[in-house]
Amino acid sequence: MLTAVLLFLPLAAALLLLVVKGAAARALAFGASLLEFVIAAYVAFDFTRHGSTAYNLDYRWIASAGINFHIGLDGLSLLMVLLTTFLVPLILLSAFKRDYDNPSTFYALVLFMQTGLLGVFVSLDAFLFYFFWEVALIPIYLLAGAWGGERRIAVTLKFFLYTVVGSLLMLAGFVYLYLQTGPAAGSLAQHSSELTAFYNLKLSAAEQSWLFWLIFAAFAVKMPIFPFHTWQPDTYTEAPAPATMLLSGIMLKMGIYGTLRWLLPVVPLGVSQWQKPVIILSVIGIIYGAIIAIRQRDVKRLIAYSSLSHVGLMAAGVFSLTQIGLQGAVVQMLAHGVNVVGMFFIADAIERRTGTRYIPDLGGLTRRTPILSVCFLIMLLSTVALPLTGGFVGEFLLLAGVYEYNAWVGAVAGLTIIFSAVYLLRMFQRVMLGPDSSFSETITDLTGGELLVLVPLIALVFWIGLFPNIFLHISEPAVTNILALVGR
Amino acid sequence: MTSIILLSVFGILNLFLGFLRSNKVLLPGAMLLLLAVFGANYADWNVAHAPYFNNMLVVDNYTVAFTGIVLLTTILLLPFSRSYVTSGEPNLAEYYALLLFSLVGAIMMIGYDHLIMLFVGIEILSISMYVLAGSNKRDSRSNEAALKYFLMGAFATGILLFGIALLYGATGTFALSQLGAAVANPANASLQPMLYIGILMMIIGIGFKVSAAPFHFWTPDVYEGTPTFFTAFMSTVVKTAGFAAFLKLLAVALPAAQGFWMPTIQAMCALTLLLGNVGAAAQSNTKRMLAYSSVSHAGYLLIGLVASKGMLTGDATSGIFFYSLAYSIATVAAFGVLKLVAEHRQEDSYAGLNGLGKTNPLLAFVMTVAMLSLAGIPLTGGFFGKFFLLAAAVGQGYIGLVVFAVIMSMVGLYYYLRPIIAMYMQPAPEGATPVPVDGIQTMTLVVLALLTIALGVVPGFMSGIL
What are phi and psi of B52, to 5 degrees? Predict the structure, then answer.
């Protein structure tokens, strides 16, 4: 029952926000998201002690077609739920920093989006999963399109079309799988769209081969993997900061999560057939994103390309099909979510103060902003994967997984750490240090309200960096289960 | 049957109401009458009735379900005729009466069990529509629309009637159930050329009414010229009734001739999807876009005919029912908003919707829901409509057609997003004032949006009922 509460509480708050305006809207939005996090934390606590059975919900949704409203939690979904519920309050706090037009609608869309995201992470029915997958898209499209920068219309249209085309291909794959299933126990319908029904299918290697690409299309666009990424840098740059945080911090993980839950175990033969090309594409993405990031002069765009590079490593780790690679992907999903939200928050903080994101215009900001500099550096070093930080644990495990798959690929993928050190530290140097710019004397340091966002993020960076076992322990059974299904 | 009687009586009653010269009673009056008819229709659900008029008309669940759609659509559409009420239109009562009479025709088309009844139904519906298309007498485009619609429609009806005659010649009967046996009878094999020409002519005639390509060319011009209120009626009620008739004809009378009509319908389906979607993508006028979009939706419904494989029950029939319902509701919402906005701003291009999200959040929201539903995005009824239809077609093995339909629905996304972009992402024109919306219209818009979302969230209550 608590799973349903988790799922629909943000939606209820979003609906309330349609009538609540002004300062009360902020309180309501933030309060709801905080309550949501508290519930998620309680669920996590209870989950580790009593297991997942209490969180399984299964209702008939469309009885005549055998489609059920089936949601549940395992270690993997739980971590994703925790990440989402942890980040959304912080993203809302960061949205309060700016005066957006029509703010209560803005917050309502963020919360609506949260329901979509959580739905993706807890669905255990293929069509329910697809349903939430698309539900998450509508609010983010409106957020980015209505509150974005100058080129928002063309950019968000491209984003929307890319992702929807990808999802439709996935839906086609699901429909094909669905029609291969038999009736579920106790159901009058001829087919079933249960996740387990999909797992139990025995399909030929040839079928799985093309099904792999149908389903993977949606995930590859969402992550995004090279060469399906062309929507990403533009969209990240043009969207307002909170929407960028949602996109990069959480929505990107939908792709990885989807691959883990709905691709690897469903078409294992297809996966083993295409494993190598996908890993190669991922590694190309790592290098490609990093090299382009070096050349960027817009802070937000640089972080966008850096995110492209990092997600390539996550994908490579997932497709290494090793326990350590998958575990690394799970930890890195958390760490990257925290890092990238922090980075975009700081980029937004600098833009709010100076009115620009253009690197050559900035410089020498650090003298007046010691706290900002320290926070920036911590986030940045975690993204670079310095030991003690969350990024290190994730990337280390991922690289170990890729190395286990193939030493050469692992070596090339390892370049990501060097590259990200190059472009991120160079950016830090040119923005915060370096010769003084016109803003060096006038810029103000972080306010208490901004620290409220950054301190939890930094705390989590170190928590994941120092005690990753808590998270690894939660996800381990789920990952083992996925690998067992792949290996059958 | 009760609904036909009630509608005819109420239509005449409405004409007399016109003598009162008080337009204020007409709108609530017509809505109440229609609600009563809707109730009477609902009372027939799951009730076995003997056929009426010497087996010419049957009232079964199929009839009741599709009649429900056309009645509901009309009820939800009526509040948007408010501007005719306030403009002091002298002939308002006649318009309402014609609407009610045309519904009688629609119900006959849905419930027919005899080709003559089909013809009578189509004529009652069409003649009312010819008049209503030209109801804006002072507008030359409305006159053009009426003339075009009438000339083309008259030809199509002629062809349909010729087809019926040939079918009679080949089989010796007008009754659907006997036709089925006669077509299947090998003794009639020598008359097959006549039969096939007859079937083809009937397909052309009905294809024209539902604006399926290549018989759709009248649609954009007629839709654009016709007053928006009647365009909405045309693209929902006429289409729903047309498809109900089409499905019945193919499924009950002609299953034995499947080998002949199946390739024809498939080709029409692919062509309709292509021309409708590509045509819509090229428009810059919202009304014309909706006209082409209604052509494209005829294409999706034709997939249902293909998947029905000559059966009046099952996945495909349920799919057509659900799709028609979701499509009708979304289309009424879209045209309703468009009518209100275009009347206020005197502009029916996409630019006319600019900044609506700021000036009228409710209208913009309802339009967004309608567009998403027409595009088939989850959370709206349109998604499940497409899903049920395409799943039924995949289940019958028509993979190629479905893949094509999915590609075409990607094209659809492009043009359905353009009103959304205009409403939320473009600034409102200088000095734009909110579009005035009265209480009953607000309520109807909310109902339309809620129905669309309900169909998209809990489709179970309407799926699989046939």
Answer: -100, 165
* End-to-end Cα, chain A, rounded Å: 33
Which token pair is B423? 């409403």
pLDDT digits (tens, 9 = 90+) for A200-220: 888 899 989 999 999 999 999
Q: Hey, are the CB atoms on A179 and B394 less than 8 Å from each other? A: yes
Chain B residues whose CB is inside 8 A of the A105 CB are 361
Distance from CA of A148 to the nearest CA of B (A): 9
**Predicted ipTM of the assembly:** 0.84
- Which residue of A64, A127, A157 is in closest CB contact with B463? A64
Question: Identity (one letter) of the amino acid at B163?
Answer: G
Which residue spans within A27-156 are E strands per DSSP? Answer: 57-62, 67-71
Alpha-carbon separation of residue A370 from A318, A364, A367, A451, B434 (angstroms): 39, 11, 6, 13, 49
Q: How far apart are CA B171 and CA B360, in angstroms?
A: 59
Is the residue at A286 inside a domain? yes
Q: Which two tokens stand for residue B31?
A: 């809505």
SS3 B81: helix
Q: Which pair of tokens denotes residue A13? A: 């708050």
Closest CA to A101 of B427, B337, B431, B365: B427
How far is the C-alpha of A401 from the C-alpha of A383, rounded, in Å? 19
Check if the beta carbon of residue B332 is closer than 8 Å to that of residue B71.
Answer: no
Write out the two tokens for A337. Answer: 């979510």
The tokens for A254 are 């939908």
What is the sign of the dihedral through the CA atoms of A474, A477, A482 and A483? positive
Q: Which domain holds residue A316?
A: 267-488
Q: Report yes or no on A334 lying in a domain.
A: yes
Taking CB atoms and an 8 Å cutoff, what residues of chain A touch B458?
Answer: 61
Which residues does residue B175 pair with via DSSP β-bridges, in sequence order? Answer: B114
Residue A347 lies in a domain: yes
| Number of folded domains that form chain A | 1
Report how far residue B280's alpha carbon sits from residue B298's, in angstroms, rounded to the nearest whole number. Answer: 13
The Cα A456–Cα A450 span in angstroms is: 11
Distance CA B374, CA A194 (A): 28
A170: nearest CA in chain B?
A: B406
Is residue A193, in this structure, part of any structural domain at all? no
Mean pLDDT by 10 residues, chain B (466 residues): 88 81 77 92 87 88 94 93 72 86 94 93 94 87 92 93 93 88 83 89 94 91 91 94 94 88 94 94 92 94 90 87 96 94 88 89 94 92 92 87 90 90 87 88 95 91 80
